[in-house]
Amino acid sequence: MGSAAAEQQPLLLGQDPHGRISDLSSATIEELLEHSIPLRWWARLVAWESRMLWLLSGSSIVVSIFNYMLSFVSLMFVGHLGAVELAGASMASVVIQGLAYGIMLGMASAVQTVCGQAYGAKRYSEMGIICQRAIVLHLGAAVLLTVIYWFSGDILLAIGQSETITEPGQLFTRGLIPQLYAFALACPMQRFLQAQNIVNPLAYMSVGVFLLHTLLTWIVVYVLDYGLLGAALTLSLSWWILVLINALYIVLSPSCKETWTGLSIRAFTGVWPYFKLTVASAVMLCLEIWYFNGLVLLAGFLPNATIELDTMSICMNYWNWDLQFMLGLSTAASIRVGNELGAGHPRVAKFSVVVVNVTSILISIVFTAIVLIFRVGLSELFTSDEEVIDAVSEITPLLAISVFLNGIQPILSGVAIGSGWQAVVAYVNLTAYYIIGLPIGCVLGFKTSLEVAGIWWGMIIGVILQTATLIILTARTNWNKEVENAAARLHRSAE
């Protein structure tokens, strides 16, 4: 049998072993991986999967970074209004906006799962229904979150923040209520487009809106002098512009003619199975985002709060930039795995998981080296305070460990989303982060001399445990069974 397979492989790959990578297909790779492949073919298979990965991840990274930059730019302009305004807006962004982002992004990962698998299975008409169903649920969540946004000042006071910070924080958050509804529409629409490998147009839209947002914020804050509320409303406006452009593309583009067939009453049927996956998705991602935001809050309760909070904030800024890059790779991993499972290609899905993880680890090694080499220069970009610079330099090795872990953990989470494991990962996150990591961080931060380094160690321990669990889950996965699960999930969503 081995000799027969060997005879078939050149025919499947083409007579020329140096033929174009683009000539290959998922079906061809799936058939090849069933057999024992000669060593000379592996480089070409890796190149094929890497090409597929970077076609998706390059633009996904751009989308992730520039969507994040909208809020980042707003906070930069707010910082020039005064220290109190910046503190209030930053705290509101971490606590209130972080809560909403966790819920919305988590719910949207269900779109990634089901639409990605539907696209792989060529059930294109189902994708538009799934997107509409997600939008209905997202808007429902936005209505509930509006109450939290409106009473954000009371919430900030309840967690121990001073009235000096809560007043501007509440003003900023109330100005972001329109953005909350824009985010409820943007999340499902972007995942809907990404699931069908439409990523370049999304990248162009994100960059264009970012440039417009920067100009508008400068005009509103500096020229018109509308202050903190003006900055918040401008951020809301920019998100609505992004939503409008996304919607026009979906409705008018020939690329979506098979996947978007117009509004349908079916969006309100078969909601319960999808709702369960949505809740699991929201819990999974919320537990992750709130964990890291909570550690920043803890730094504010340390004895030397100003220095410790500045140190944590600077390090978390660099960690966030690295995370946004890796989230682009995570999105690509989710799309690749979902598409291949939907298409009934378990071996290609497994192969994709291996390639994306090796790629991300290699990138993280480079990023980790940069953090360690430029440990002093990185802090000097944010502050000239020698005490803060020294504190950041001391904690930089821990930042480097976190940057390296970013090359594994988000990617495995992307694989979990593509496979539909959100409920399982939610339990993993609860245990690793809140039952183990957070208590350890509190003990090391408040009961030892480590202070902010102790809190960070708690974060690292939680992430290591979560990552190790996901590695075990992924390594033990029966990918043939996952193909069956994907087919069953699509059948339930069509009911």
From TrEMBL:
<protein>
    <recommendedName>
        <fullName>Protein DETOXIFICATION</fullName>
    </recommendedName>
</protein>
<feature type="transmembrane region" description="Helical">
    <location>
        <begin position="273"/>
        <end position="301"/>
    </location>
</feature>
<feature type="transmembrane region" description="Helical">
    <location>
        <begin position="201"/>
        <end position="224"/>
    </location>
</feature>
<feature type="transmembrane region" description="Helical">
    <location>
        <begin position="452"/>
        <end position="473"/>
    </location>
</feature>
<dbReference type="InterPro" id="IPR045069">
    <property type="entry name" value="MATE_euk"/>
</dbReference>
<dbReference type="GO" id="GO:0016020">
    <property type="term" value="C:membrane"/>
</dbReference>
<keyword id="KW-0813">Transport</keyword>
<dbReference type="Pfam" id="PF01554">
    <property type="entry name" value="MatE"/>
</dbReference>
<keyword id="KW-0812">Transmembrane</keyword>
<feature type="transmembrane region" description="Helical">
    <location>
        <begin position="53"/>
        <end position="78"/>
    </location>
</feature>
<dbReference type="InterPro" id="IPR002528">
    <property type="entry name" value="MATE_fam"/>
</dbReference>
<keyword id="KW-0472">Membrane</keyword>
<feature type="transmembrane region" description="Helical">
    <location>
        <begin position="230"/>
        <end position="252"/>
    </location>
</feature>
<keyword id="KW-1133">Transmembrane helix</keyword>
<feature type="transmembrane region" description="Helical">
    <location>
        <begin position="351"/>
        <end position="378"/>
    </location>
</feature>
<feature type="transmembrane region" description="Helical">
    <location>
        <begin position="424"/>
        <end position="446"/>
    </location>
</feature>
<comment type="similarity">
    <text>Belongs to the multi antimicrobial extrusion (MATE) (TC 2.A.66.1) family.</text>
</comment>
<feature type="transmembrane region" description="Helical">
    <location>
        <begin position="133"/>
        <end position="151"/>
    </location>
</feature>
<feature type="transmembrane region" description="Helical">
    <location>
        <begin position="398"/>
        <end position="417"/>
    </location>
</feature>
